[in-house]
Inverse folding.
């Protein structure tokens, strides 16, 4: 009995190790460039770790059972009657329920934190979606308008989404946050950039024949460079 348990555990650990290497070596998500996406990735890896553990356990039991308890092809006899195990049934119901609750609570906390304004006033940016282009307005800089999204590193930005025609969805994959732009309704999200560089703004909601071309450039620069850009000539 003890030997069988050891073999089962070894099989499970081997499967878990292989899955962990695959999960860590392959690039599943864009490189995070915001505080909010860091939190989202934490939830992703929590769920991934739980999934690897459960899959490894189930796969190990299946493999061990096929290996140890297989019968000859010509054996048509019925096995011994089994009436179940109350403790085991309670365990495989309670443990998944607890894990789901944990994921739900962590996700709720992350959603709440990602939707909160910081302690300092954020940079306000009005995002206007229109078939098939994005426009960005900076109210605090004399309504400077640009077809390019420019943000200062380390400063939280509040995006207020608007649409002049149909539903669009504002999304910068490296920022993690995504929000619909709905005609007649203002929606908001917060993003705090943490990495300098150029990124892409895409529309994540099918909005017409030109949906695939609804792209814009997002650029994260130093605070000094942003001030220079924002106070310069409007695009």
């Amino acid at each position: 009995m003890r030997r069988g348990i050891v073999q089962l555990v070894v099989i499970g650990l081997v499967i878990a190790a292989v899955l962990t290497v695959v999960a860590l070596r392959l690039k599943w998500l864009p490189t995070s460039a915001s505080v909010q996406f860091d939190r989202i990735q934490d939830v992703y890896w929590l769920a991934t770790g739980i999934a690897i553990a459960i899959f490894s356990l189930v796969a190990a039991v299946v493999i061990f059972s096929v290996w140890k308890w297989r019968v000859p092809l010509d054996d048509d006899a019925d096995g011994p009657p089994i009436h179940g195990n109350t403790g085991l049934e309670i365990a495989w119901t309670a443990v998944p329920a607890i894990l789901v609750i944990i994921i739900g609570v962590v996700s709720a906390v992350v959603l709440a934190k990602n939707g909160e304004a910081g302690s300092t006033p954020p940079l306000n940016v009005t995002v206007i979606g229109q078939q098939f282009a994005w426009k960005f307005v900076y109210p605090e800089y004399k309504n400077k308008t640009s077809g390019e999204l420019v943000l200062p590193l380390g400063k939280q930005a509040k995006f207020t989404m608007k649409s002049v025609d149909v539903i669009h969805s504002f999304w910068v994959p490296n920022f993690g946050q995504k929000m619909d732009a709905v005609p007649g309704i203002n929606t908001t999200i917060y993003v705090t950039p943490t990495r300098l560089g150029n990124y892409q703004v895409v529309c994540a909601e099918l909005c017409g024949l030109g949906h695939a071309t609804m792209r814009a450039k997002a650029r994260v620069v130093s605070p000094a460079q942003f001030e220079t850009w924002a106070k310069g000539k409007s695009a």
Observations:
- The longest helix spans residues 35-68.
- The CA atoms of residues 19 and 25 lie 10 Å apart.
